[in-house]
Amino acid sequence: MTIAIVNGPNLNLLGTREPEIYGNQTFEAYFEELKTMFPQVQLQYYQSNVEGELINFLHNCMGKVNGIVLNAGAYTHTSIALADAIAAIIIPTIEVHISNVMAREDFRKTSYIAAKCVGSISGLGMMGYKLAVEYFLSQKSKVKN
Ligand code: DQA
């Protein structure tokens, strides 16, 4: 099983970015932990600050990836193009947010991508990515290899 973890804008700064909201860990360090937790899964990681690059990456996942764990960052709240890409590629996608977006500013309460995703995880810190991978594993028999 191959799962792509995709992070959007500003998530390259995890570790130093607003640590009171997002914690102190870099995503690179967390990704190493994830790979140890799931040796049976082919985990890929992609990050971009550019909307079109994220869309191109999602398109390139077609036929190669069984599931996508997507933290679209602020594009969650703005990008119809990203929502359309998720719908177009037909690969099951889980929306993840490190912070609890429902407990923050009102503009974060709108997600353009949520309806195109299998489900959403918000507010559980980095653990949200792990839980998303676990969900895909639990569905393994239903997922094309
Ligand atoms: C975020 C929440 C978004 O509102 C914000 O723009 C981010 C990070 C999160 O992981 O909590 O960049 O997606």
Automatic annotation (TrEMBL):
Species this chain originates from: Taibaiella soli
Origin organism lineage: Bacteria, Pseudomonadati, Bacteroidota, Chitinophagia, Chitinophagales
Binding site for substrate: N71, H77, D84, I98, S99, R108
Superkingdom of origin organism: Bacteria
Catalytic function, reaction form: 3-dehydroquinate = 3-dehydroshikimate + H2O
Gene Ontology molecular function terms on file: 3-dehydroquinate dehydratase activity
Site (Transition state stabilizer): R17
PANTHER family cross-referenced by the UniProt entry: CATABOLIC 3-DEHYDROQUINASE
EC number: 4.2.1.10
Catalytic residue list: Y22 (proton acceptor), H97 (proton donor)
Transmembrane residue ranges: none
Family indicated by similarity: Belongs to the type-II 3-dehydroquinase family.
NCBIfam families attached to this UniProt entry: aroQ (TIGR01088), PRK05395.1-2 (NF003805), PRK05395.1-3 (NF003806), PRK05395.1-4 (NF003807)
This protein's record includes keyword Cell wall biogenesis/degradation: no
Pathway(s) the chain acts in: Metabolic intermediate biosynthesis; chorismate biosynthesis; chorismate from D-erythrose 4-phosphate and phosphoenolpyruvate: step 3/7
Record keywords, A-Z: Amino-acid biosynthesis, Aromatic amino acid biosynthesis, Lyase
Gene that this sequence comes from: aroQ
Any one of the GO BP annotations: quinate catabolic process
Cited function: Catalyzes a trans-dehydration via an enolate intermediate.
Quaternary organization: Homododecamer.
Amino-acid biosynthesis recorded as keyword: yes
CDD domains: DHQase_II (cd00466)
Protein name, UniProt field: 3-dehydroquinate dehydratase
